[in-house]
Design a protein that fits this description.
The structure is a single chain. With 188 residues, the protein is mainly alpha-helical. It has one domain: Up-down Bundle (Ferritin), CATH 1.20.1260.10. It contains five helices and three strands; from the N terminus they run αααααβββ. A hairpin with a 5-residue loop joins strand 1 and strand 2. Helix 1 runs antiparallel to helix 2. Bound molecules: fe (ii) ion (2 copies).
Amino acid sequence: MSIVIENLKEAIMGESTAKAKYKFFAEKAYDENYPEIAHLFEAISTAEAVHIKNHMKALTLLTGVEIKIENFVDVNEEALKKTVKDTKSNLIDAIKGETYETKQMYKDFVKNAKKEENEVAELSFMLARKAEKVHANLFKKYLKQLEKNQKIDKQKIYVCQICGNVEFEEAPLVCPVCDHTQKFFKEI
Ligand SMILES: [Fe+2]
Ligand SMILES: [Fe+2]
């Protein structure tokens, strides 16, 4: 069995969990009257959906058959809801997850894909890894502001539909993560 297939499935599972979790974190942030933090959680939730789509494509190409996501992804939303804490703790949890994905999980997965000479999976992992780093930094920025009791300004948030990169205020002419043009950014 190819390790890359296993890695793709694990990544899809992880991204699906993050996508669902961030939606709950967004609800909590709205409840606690942090609409801008809620907005960021919502935007990054859609960015994780981009990673799921890319990994699913790679998995289909690699296996040659259309694999249904429901066959191996089962996110227990009720259990996940119970892990929701206050917004500060949720930001810390999100930073931890994004950092693990950048520094460990995707780092290993990129290596494995290289070893198996699977360029499609390698690209999918590499783009996700770079985007997760951006996600971690944005969460860190908001955590700092929250800790200092600073007002968080209302921002426009754009998500690259090719790689899941997230940009504030204006979509760049060229995505710094995947090199695609501005038209691939969607405002969330
Ligand atoms: Fe992320
Ligand atoms: Fe991009």
